[in-house]
What we know:
This protein is 21% helix and 25% strand.
Amino acid sequence: MQLPSRRFHTVTWREGANAALSSRLAAIRVHCTSRAAQPAVTPEDEWLLIEWPREEAEPTKYFVSTLPADTPIKELMRLAKLRWRIERDYQELKQELGLGHFEGLAGAVLIATPRCA
């Protein structure tokens, strides 16, 4: 919320069905740490993408990426949105197969053979 508005830019990441897909976002380098991290180990910088459309009162989405520092912001956003599409397709496939409630270890899907009557 404290990031200056000049850090936010409108980025178009791909053509949609009716129009180009774009949003206002900022990309900054940060390093994420956890309590489990070794104190002697300095974490590497990562990208933090903050999506904040002008019509919204606060940011709507956040993405963290380990892509290299020289990755263009348009490519960062394209890949972040692509991952979202893949995850949505995965969820829809599970629902269509009737496996929406099955989760295995580490989030792996359990594949079951449907019984025929």
